[in-house]
Structure of Toll-like receptor 1:
Amino acid sequence: MYLNIYSVQVALLLWSITILSLRTHCLAEQEEEGFALCVTSRRLVQNLSNHNLSNVPLDLNNDTQYLDISHNPLVKLEAAPFQRIPQLCFLKVSHCGLRLIDPNLFVHIPKLKFLNISHNLLDYIPDLSLPLLKILDLASNQYDCYQLPATFETMANLTILSLGSENALEVDFNDFDSLSDSSLQHLILGGGVQWQRYDPGSLAKLKSLQKITLKVPFCENLDLFQNLLEDVNETQTTDLQLVELLPNLCNITGDPFSNLRTMPLVKNLTIVNTLINSSFMVLFLKNVLLSNVTMIQFVNITYSEDTPDGFLLPSLNHTVVMRSVIFEGVHHYQYRYPVIDINVDIFSKVDYLKFSGTGMNIVPCDIMSTLPSLETLDLSNNLLTDSGFWWSVCSYTSVFPKLRHLSLSKNRFSDLSFISKKTGQMKNLESLDLSFNSIRLDMPCFWPTHITELSLSNNNLGNNVFSFLSKYFQRIDLSKTGITALTQEDLLQFPMLTHLVLSSNSIKVIPTALSPTLLSLHLDQNAISSISQETLAGLPSLRTLKAGDNPFACSCDSYWFLNALNKSLLPDWPLDYTCSTPPSVAGLPMSEYKTSKISCEAWLQAAIAFPVMIVIVVALCSVFYACDGVWYTKMLWVWIRVKRRGKKQASLLSNAMFRYHSFISYSHCDSAWVESKLVPSLEGSGLSLCIHERDFVPGQWVVDNIINCIEASYKTLFVLSNHFVQSEWCNYELFFAQHRALDEQQDSLVFILLEPIPTKSLPKKFLKLRSLLMQQTYLEWPKDERKQQVFWANLRSMLQVADHRVLKDMALSLAESASLITDE
Ligand SMILES: *[C@@H]1O[C@H](CO)[C@@H](O)[C@H](O)[C@H]1NC(C)=O
Ligand SMILES: *[C@@H]1O[C@H](CO)[C@@H](O)[C@H](O)[C@H]1NC(C)=O
Ligand SMILES: *[C@@H]1O[C@H](CO)[C@@H](O)[C@H](O)[C@H]1NC(C)=O
Ligand SMILES: *[C@@H]1O[C@H](CO)[C@@H](O)[C@H](O)[C@H]1NC(C)=O
Ligand SMILES: *[C@@H]1O[C@H](CO)[C@@H](O)[C@H](O)[C@H]1NC(C)=O
Ligand SMILES: *[C@@H]1O[C@H](CO)[C@@H](O)[C@H](O)[C@H]1NC(C)=O
Ligand SMILES: *[C@@H]1O[C@H](CO)[C@@H](O)[C@H](O)[C@H]1NC(C)=O
Ligand SMILES: *[C@@H]1O[C@H](CO)[C@@H](O)[C@H](O)[C@H]1NC(C)=O
Ligand SMILES: *[C@@H]1O[C@H](CO)[C@@H](O)[C@H](O)[C@H]1NC(C)=O
Ligand SMILES: *[C@@H]1O[C@H](CO)[C@@H](O)[C@H](O)[C@H]1NC(C)=O
Ligand SMILES: *[C@@H]1O[C@H](CO)[C@@H](O)[C@H](O)[C@H]1NC(C)=O
Ligand SMILES: *[C@@H]1O[C@H](CO)[C@@H](O)[C@H](O)[C@H]1NC(C)=O
């Protein structure tokens, strides 16, 4: 079968001279690898890149693991600053104009695993003896040969080495001897200048090599290139990258790639930054198609048509093993449509085709219906639109019959409803990548059931995107789509969902009971402050949770997350987890935040607080009893009541005046105490007392005397002792019986207990006393002198009357209207 794909011309209609933003990912990835290799905490990273430093600072943290001092005017690297950082594992000193390195420097940093001193002015390859070093970049310096120092022998674990200098024009047979026993896997060699000499056999010594990147143009002397390929054939190399192999205006003679046909190991061949003429392309492809190369990759090439009939590849009578064809960045030398005439049989086995960064805006109909084995088509980074990809003039019965993965990332697709319908034509399509487009959500979508994976990342979609998706989806990527909230209902629509990416949105809360089927969830770079046990309980199948770079609250909210969650679930732990609030710990790596179980778990607090409280209560009680707390409490109670009533009565009493503050009633047995203590203490503070020995009118019946005194006094004070009860109280029982009016006025009665008198021991006949002592608070006379102070103070405040004028008339009238002074 021989097929002319002239319609390709149409596809190339807008293949203008595209300006590409090519990812120089290979090396950047290595730098990231260096980060992963070395850094255990972001705190130990020192990034001093671009700080206009002329010296390495001397005060670096002594546990620094990662130091980037690239882009500084350093000139010389001294040893002193490195003596202090023995833990250093990653060092980058590129673009520093470096000419000299202290030979003793590396002795101080034996743990170095990554060293990048590329893009400097070193005119020698430094002596390095770093047994742990894995990645070494010495490219773009000024040394004039590739002779590696003998000390390189110690670097048994070196896996990646980059060498290159504009001044090194020759490769000697012995240049790489010191690495012949190393485990070097990837060699990047060349300074972008043509070599004058290459001693055959030099590279063959690096037996362990698996990947070679050559940054050497071979234009004038393609013989060198032939020799070099023979040496590559002696190593384990499967991956060959040729950078700037053929510059512009190059005279190609012979068949430089013929050696490829007999190199069984090389499987991946990459051509980078090169001008390729159609005549050379035919020559090159004939060899490649006869070799064991399964992947051919063109990165940033300029295609020039120097044959009048365009690109013409005749039919082949052998089987082709080619599986993957990749074009990543194609410029056109001529501003016209290239003519491509190819037997599609050649591509009958190709299952991976990438056509990226080419400015393509229309996909030709023929391509859509041919390429029978194609499983993956990557058309990212072009200028395709909905109608450019699904071109309306095409009529075809089958579209990419075996296609399973389609990437339309970084194009101009917009109508999701249209796309969902059209993908139904690709009967085997499983995954579709529409990231970095301009997707709109206007109309309902009707997805074919065979599509199970969709990426809509980096489109502005919003929260209702979930209702435009298919319930058959198993993997959904919605990173950076402007989602602000996620609900349980959103995900209930996807019973088969296993992978969900929601990175770089503004989600604050993860709902509980999210999805029973989810295996992997990415929620990094959102606004989540904590991850709870309930959330994880709602994700019973989860195996991977990426949640770094969120504003985590380092408080009890994170206690479970920090202490109980199995961290093997988190691929980005601990590097990407940093405390954000409270401000006191902002910036602290979460793995270094410590919170105790006690301060965070309520039941534990209770469990601990309970015994502690019991101990405290017991201690307080002991102190209370030891210091006669009961007595003081009683006194305090009396005092409070006095004050309370005092306030109530103040207005009533403002008009009522008495001759005495108090009438004192006592037994003669207690007269010694009354005369020596009570009277001096009370009268000493200005209170006037009625004492029967002194103030009773002689000859009168004692009860009358008592009544007179009581009526003329604001209060009546009983000094109770056993003797008083036995001998005196009977008079009062009588008195209370006679004066029912005063009966209620119990407030005016004050009892002092000189000795304990249990209520039960009182004679049954003294009903009044019993009930009074039951209801009434009484003052106990303390033996302790300090307590006596309190006793007197309390007693005095009970007897105090605001006004000292004594008016018997008023007192009498008060006595008659005694109900006024009752409690309520
Ligand atoms: C070393 O630094 C240069 C300049 O930044 C960079 O281009 C290169 O990729 C780095 N080398 C490695 C191995 O990462
Ligand atoms: C260090 O800082 C430079 C710019 O100052 C930046 O480009 C680079 O990514 C930073 N490196 C790391 C590891 O953060
Ligand atoms: C860098 O530092 C030098 C002095 O060390 C100063 O003269 C120069 O202006 C600085 N350059 C910048 C961009 O700050
Ligand atoms: C760093 O210095 C501190 C004291 O400043 C010391 O306690 C610590 O052990 C040192 N760490 C290392 C790795 O030398
Ligand atoms: C090389 O690395 C391996 C692990 O990757 C380690 O076991 C071995 O000790 C290293 N060799 C040297 C010389 O450090
Ligand atoms: C590569 O090595 C194989 C043997 O392993 C040999 O047959 C073949 O000729 C070699 N090819 C070249 C180009 O040296
Ligand atoms: C070839 O390159 C592809 C894609 O970069 C990679 O997956 C594959 O492992 C490589 N194969 C070899 C043998 O290097
Ligand atoms: C490609 O073609 C141009 C003009 O057609 C010619 O000048 C140049 O030397 C050719 N280059 C190669 C690498 O074939
Ligand atoms: C290419 O080679 C031919 C003869 O081998 C010579 O005449 C011509 O000048 C060369 N062209 C260039 C650009 O070197
Ligand atoms: C391709 O590889 C196979 C096995 O690896 C080998 O037998 C065969 O000779 C190789 N073909 C070429 C053209 O090197
Ligand atoms: C692409 O290749 C051209 C040379 O062919 C080079 O000048 C340019 O810098 C390259 N672009 C990138 C991004 O590497
Ligand atoms: C394959 O075709 C080439 C010419 O393209 C021819 O020289 C060769 O003999 C053919 N081989 C077979 C096996 O037909």
Q: What stands out?
A: The mean pLDDT is 83.
